[in-house]
């Protein structure tokens, strides 16, 4: 099988159920999810398997789910004779909430806003957090124009919170403090 197909040379790409322009809102949404998936992979390779074993496992699961989310977003209509079926579910959102609580329990209480940084792993996870938020914004825009799997939007919303919690926990595991925003007062009590 060849990697190149030449079918996109005129600015169109295939989605599940048809073809759309490469700059469509749909392609922008699942393309941003794909970008996020790559950044999660980058964060994983920065991790020490001894200190971050559980984190690596969770992030690897998230990579698979992001691939599923991209598939859900690329689904325009079910192939003939098949029922529309999505992969991202409410159970995945609930599980993310459990993971957020678990990682948050490792961290000291927050008193000030946190700036991205600390350890290299934490900084990489904060990049994942911001791209997750952008992916969510793209999905919100897509949902204004076309039907989507609503669980993808919820999943991405929760995922940005997950990246915040795991970035802070990575700093704890790496023995590095969070970088606090010092120009404001304590905002969390």
TrEMBL record:
One Pfam annotation, family name? Cob_adeno_trans
Q: Where is the Cobalamin adenosyltransferase-like domain?
A: 3-169
- Domain of life of the organism encoding this protein: Bacteria
SUPFAM superfamilies listed in its UniProt record: Cobalamin adenosyltransferase-like (SSF89028)
Keywords in alphabetical order: ATP-binding, Cobalamin biosynthesis, Nucleotide-binding, Transferase
The protein's annotated catalytic reaction(s) are: 2 cob(II)alamin + reduced [electron-transfer flavoprotein] + 2 ATP = 2 adenosylcob(III)alamin + 2 triphosphate + oxidized [electron-transfer flavoprotein] + 3 H(+); 2 cob(II)yrinate a,c diamide + reduced [electron-transfer flavoprotein] + 2 ATP = 2 adenosylcob(III)yrinate a,c-diamide + 2 triphosphate + oxidized [electron-transfer flavoprotein] + 3 H(+)
Q: What class of enzyme is it?
A: transferase
- Belongs to which family? Belongs to the Cob(I)alamin adenosyltransferase family.
Q: Which protein is depicted?
A: Corrinoid adenosyltransferase
Organism per entry: Effusibacillus consociatus
